[in-house]
Every structure is written in structure tokens, then in C-alpha cells.
Q: What sequence folds into this?
């Protein structure tokens, strides 16, 4: 069984250290040494190192990080911005919060190295508004980093300057989508923008902009310190390295755990999360946040935690938010919650998304509450299919995919509701 | 009506905030937070004031404010109970917490108690699914809740005993 030995951890190696959020403690654990090393390298070598590592974005889309950095034009005459995406609003995901609350300096170090690599002198951490505690921890850490010379002018005696601002969002899932995030940071509604142009070319205020997830940037110091090859030695062919998984739902030990990509999902649930609560039988697993289609219990047996395996099973590794659903709970009710979420969070710009998410919610709710018909299931499928690939951003797809997945993989649950004209599990609402 | 104006201390903080950004418009969210801190919510006169300070059209400021659930367009009670009812919290009992609110406070979602102490909202995933079910009270997360704990929490808040929030949030993440 492939399982990450604790001594080989990359992201959570130091998590047990008391007071790690303090700059001095972080330094005593070797913190900011990678930044020192990076500042002595030519920026393009850092980009090469990250390319070699095979690191792919941890925000959900899995885009190769080094390649993204390589797209940033260096001769546009405009300032370049680096935005750290700390919006973390994908249901089932709570890994970035842990990193920011426990080890904020490692993130700052990653941001400084990455900014240096892409030639940015201004970076923002866009953190979801609800994470007030993490934001204040980060703000304190940023202040300490300025005082210690890791941010500000002439960092560590080099000629590199970097300003870093912690910016709080205000409660909108769509601001996690990179162009929605940019709109929000510009003081507007968090409405996504059409791509191209991609942010790397024209993003924040029309300037070249790199948007990366917290965990992605947090990984960078290790890669710079140990080299790209060392990182690429972890994981599978297309999914290199280790990753954090947030596991929640019906398990004994929910939480955030680091595992090497390619590890068994079943073993992950058993070993880290302590298996099913009360010895319950497994019904379904949402593997990568609520936007990813579910796996059946049978599929969970063979699934491994990497992009290749998830793709084969018709789903995604996503944000690594694993939600475990037991046999005794009503799936339709949970799908109703998922559908309501996307309806609530659709920014309303594109008709298929604005209307489609509302219809999906109403149709799923009608089934859950005993008013659905067999044709409702067909209508859900039709509506879902018409929402894919037709909007400015993929929120529409993110709403349709899991709902279609549940309807396709668990048709009997829906049909039972329809035939009984009520929720067979009993209603509490 | 007295004129809408930041306190002297907040005028200083306003300057510090705006100085961090490329353009005043980018400082809109933090400035709206600052205003919300002073006035409790963003009335139209507050939105006008902020627009004036940042040199932005009032319509722009109002439309931005309308987009974000954490920016309050009307007053909430002293304790804003934000109950997560997304997937993991639902699985682990958020509906029972909702029932407790109803029993203890007579509150349905989007209502405020007559004494102005509590407002209840159902909110989306708070990024705390590992410690579900969770209720955010103003800025604090109270995690790993169950009906009896939640009842105790509400009862103590009702009699003005705020220390209960600290007690129930402490050590959650150590
Ligand atoms: C609807 C939607 C919500 C998203 N939410 C987040 C989020 O909360 N955090 C995040 O890092 N990426 C999120 N993303 C992905 C971002 O658009 C973007 O791909 C990512 O921040 C890039 O960083 P990475 O390459 O390091 O992953 C979201 C995407 C979509 C379509
Ligand atoms: S589902 Fe409630 S915090 Fe995530």
C-alpha cells in the first residue's frame, strides 16, 4: 500500500511545531532559507525548477504552475501582479485555512519567491471574508515579515522589492474563480470576465497577473530548496508531488491530511480519517469538492488520489475536498443542498447559469419533497447538459456536473422518492 | 440628521487602507468593512459617504455592496448567527441546530428577534466541514456543535454572557 511516510511530508512537515505562526519560530525551523536561495538565482531558473517539479495548481483546475508563470509577458511595460487565491469556498474544502492559520510565513515565503520569479513587485492575498481569524493571523505575519526584511524594499539585501497586502473578500463563492477574484479586487461585483485574454496577459487593472492557490504557492519554497526533480519523484506520471486532502462527512477523524498523489482513496478514508463513523456502510464519496461528480462505493475501492484515476472514473481531484456519505443518509437531500449552493452563488451574468442553477435546484427539491415525476429526472439531465461549456466561467459546469453525476450513478434513490411521493428517509425540514 | 462621517481614528485608518492600493476603487471592500464597523450596516447615506470619499459613483458603490453577503444592507441583531447548511454540516446535524434556534429564540432564517439580540441566517460552506456542524457568530466560528451545546450557547448569550463564545471557540484549533 502506497502511503506517505510522515518523514517525507512536504506541506505538513512542521505543523506540530508550537508557535510556528511567529516569524522567529519559523526562522528557527529553517524558514525563509528558500527565499534567500531563490534571490540568488536567475528568475527564469526558478520557473524552470517549478516546471521540472511538475507542480500543478492546487485550486482545482490543476494547471501546471511553471507554465503559467512562463506565459507572463516581461516586456509589456506594465506592472505585473501576483494574486494569492485564498477564497477557499468550494464546499468540502478547508485545507488553505489550516495552512494560513498554522504556517502563514511559509505562504509569505512562497509568495515572495513566486513574485520574484515572475517579476512582480506587488502581491495580494485575497482571503474569503469569513476567514477573519486566518486574515488576522496573516496580517500579523505580514507585518513581522516586513520588519524582518522578507517583504518591502531590497529584500534580504537584494535589489528585489515586494509589497504584500491581505485583502478580505465579503462572502461570494464566485470570487474564487480567478477572473471573478480580479473583478472583486478592482472594487466591483465579483463577476468573471471572458477569457482570453488570460489574466497572465491582461488581468488585474489590465496588467499581467498571476493567480495561484494558497497550497500551490505554499509548495514553492520546498521545491526551490530541494529541487524540481526531488518533488517530481513523488506522485504519479501526471500528478506529481503530495497534496492536502480535506476529508469530512461521515468519518471518525475528519480533518486535513497530506498524502502522496496516487495513493488509494479507500486506504485514505480508513487510515487517516479512521473509517466510517459507527461502522456505517459507504454509499458515495465526493472526491474533490462539491463541484466534482461522486464516486460509488464500488468505484471508491479502485480509485487512487491522482488526476488520471479520477478522470478514468469520470470525475476530478478538484480541490481535494473529500466528502464521505454513508448509506443511511438521503442522497437527494444532499444533492438539494448542492443545487441550492450553486443557485445561490451564480453571479447572474450568463442566462444558462442563472436560470439553469435555479431550475436544477427547484427540480431536485421537488423530488426530495415528494412532488417529482419521472420526467423531472429527464428534465434535470437535459437542463444540466445545456449548462455545460456555454458560459463565461465554469460555475455553470460546476453546478451541472455533480448533479448529473448523482442522477446517473444513483438513479434508484431519485426514483424511490418519485414513486413514494416523499423522501423515504423521512423529512426533517 | 447628523452628518455621516468617519471617526477621527477611522479617518486615519481610511488613509492607510487607500494607500495600499493601486487605485481608490480597489479599496472599496475594505472601506465598506470600515464603514460597517462604525455604523453596523451600510445605509444609503453611508454608501454615499463612501462613494464621496473614494471619488466613485454612488451607483457603483451600491451595486458592489449589493453583491456581497457579508456587507449588510440592513441592521442585524447584536449576534448574527450564520448557520452553515451545506453538505457536511447537513449530514452532521445542522437541521437540528436550526430547530434549536426556533425553540430557543423563535427564529426562522432571515429573522431578527424582537429585542434585537439575534439574527439568524443560513449560509453556505464556511470552510469548516471537518468540524461540522458549525455556526459563525459575528466573526467567530463555533465548531463541532450539537443541539445541547448550541442551546447552552444561546441561553448564555440571551442573558448577556458573551464569554461563552470565547469558551466554545478556544482550543478548537490548537
Ligand atoms: C466557480 C469557481 C470557483 C473557484 N474557487 C476557487 C477557490 O476558492 N480557490 C482557488 O484557489 N481556486 C478556485 N478556483 C480556481 C481558480 O479559477 C484558479 O484556477 C486558481 O486560483 C488558479 O490557481 P492554481 O493554478 O494555483 O490552482 C475556482 C474556479 C471556479 C470556476
Ligand atoms: S459544510 Fe458546513 S462548513 Fe463546510
A:
Amino acid at each position: 500500500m502506497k502511503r506517505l511516510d510522515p518523514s517525507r511530508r512536504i506541506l505538513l512537515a512542521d505543523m506540530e511545531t508550537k508557535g510556528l505562526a511567529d516569524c522567529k519560530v519559523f526562522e528557527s525551523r529553517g524558514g525563509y532559507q528558500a527565499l534567500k536561495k531563490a534571490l540568488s538565482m536567475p528568475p527564469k531558473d526558478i520557473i524552470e525548477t517549478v516546471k521540472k517539479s511538475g507542480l500543478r495548481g492546487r485550486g482545482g483546475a490543476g494547471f501546471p504552475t511553471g507554465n503559467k508563470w512562463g506565459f507572463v509577458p516581461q516586456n509589456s511595460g506594465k506592472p505585473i501582479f501576483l494574486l494569492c487565491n485564498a477564497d477557499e469556498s468550494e464546499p468540502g474544502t478547508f485545507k488553505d485555512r489550516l495552512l494560513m492559520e498554522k504556517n502563514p510565513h511559509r505562504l509569505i515565503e512562497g509568495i515572495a519567491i513566486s513574485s520574484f520569479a515572475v517579476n512582480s513587485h506587488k502581491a495580494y492575498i485575497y482571503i474569503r471574508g469569513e476567514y477573519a481569524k486566518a486574515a488576522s493571523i496573516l496580517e500579523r505575519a505580514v507585518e513581522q515579515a516586513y520588519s524582518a526584511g522578507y517583504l518591502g524594499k531590497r529584500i534580504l539585501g537584494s535589489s528585489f522589492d515586494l509589497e504584500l497586502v491581505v485583502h478580505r473578500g465579503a462572502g461570494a463563492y464566485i470570487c474564487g474563480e480567478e477572473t471573478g477574484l480580479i473583478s472583486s479586487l478592482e472594487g466591483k461585483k465579483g463577476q468573471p470576465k471572458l477569457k482570453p485574454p488570460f489574466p497572465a496577459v491582461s488581468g488585474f487593472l489590465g496588467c499581467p497577473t498571476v493567480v495561484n492557490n494558497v497550497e500551490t504557492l505554499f509548495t514553492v519554497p520546498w521545491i526551490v530548496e530541494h529541487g524540481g526533480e526531488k518533488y517530481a519523484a513523488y506522485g504519479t506520471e501526471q500528478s506529481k508531488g503530495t497534496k492536502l486532502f480535506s476529508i469530512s462527512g461521515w468519518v471518525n477523524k475528519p480533518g486535513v491530511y497530506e498524502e502522496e498523489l496516487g495513493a488509494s482513496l479507500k486506504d485514505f478514508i480508513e487510515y487517516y480519517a479512521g473509517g466510517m463513523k459507527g461502522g456505517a456502510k459507504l454509499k458515495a464519496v465526493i472526491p474533490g469538492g462539491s463541484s466534482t461528480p461522486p464516486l460509488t462505493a464500488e468505484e471508491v475501492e479502485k480509485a487512487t488520489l491522482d488526476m488520471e484515476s479520477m478522470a478514468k472514473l469520470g470525475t476530478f481531484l478538484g480541490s481535494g475536498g473529500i466528502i464521505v456519505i454513508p448509506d443511511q443518509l438521503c442522497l437527494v437531500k444532499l444533492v438539494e443542498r448542492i443545487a441550492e449552493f450553486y443557485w445561490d452563488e451564480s453571479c447572474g451574468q450568463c442566462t444558462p447559469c442563472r436560470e439553469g442553477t435555479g431550475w436544477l435546484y427547484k427540480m431536485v427539491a421537488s423530488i426530495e419533497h415528494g412532488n417529482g415525476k419521472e420526467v423531472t429526472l429527464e428534465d434535470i439531465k437535459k437542463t444540466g447538459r445545456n449548462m455545460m461549456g456555454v458560459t463565461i466561467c465554469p460555475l455553470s459546469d460546476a453546478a451541472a456536473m455533480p448533479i448529473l453525476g448523482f442522477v446517473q450513478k444513483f438513479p434508484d434513490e431519485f426514483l424511490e422518492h418519485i414513486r413514494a411521493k416523499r423522501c423515504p428517509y423521512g423529512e426533517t425540514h | 440628521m447628523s452628518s455621516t462621517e468617519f471617526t477621527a481614528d477611522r479617518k486615519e485608518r481610511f488613509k492607510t487602507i487607500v494607500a495600499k492600493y493601486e487605485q481608490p476603487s480597489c479599496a472599496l471592500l475594505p472601506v465598506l468593512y470600515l464603514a460597517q464597523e462604525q455604523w453596523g450596516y451600510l445605509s444609503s447615506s453611508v454608501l454615499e459617504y463612501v462613494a464621496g470619499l473614494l471619488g466613485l459613483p454612488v451607483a457603483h458603490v451600491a451595486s458592489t455592496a449589493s453583491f456581497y453577503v457579508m456587507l449588510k444592507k440592513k441592521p442585524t441583531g447584536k449576534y448574527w448567527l450564520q448557520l452553515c447548511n451545506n453538505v457536511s454540516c447537513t449530514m452532521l446535524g445542522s437541521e437540528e441546530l436550526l430547530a434549536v434556534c426556533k425553540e430557543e429564540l423563535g427564529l426562522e432564517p432571515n429573522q431578527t428577534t424582537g429585542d434585537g439580540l439575534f439574527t439568524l441566517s443560513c449560509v453556505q460552506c464556511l470552510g469548516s466541514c471537518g468540524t461540522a456542524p458549525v455556526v459563525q457568530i459575528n466573526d467567530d466560528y463555533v465548531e463541532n456543535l450539537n443541539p445541547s451545546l448550541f442551546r447552552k450557547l444561546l441561553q448564555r448569550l440571551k442573558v448577556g454572557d458573551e464569554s461563552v463564545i470565547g469558551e466554545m471557540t478556544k482550543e478548537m484549533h490548537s
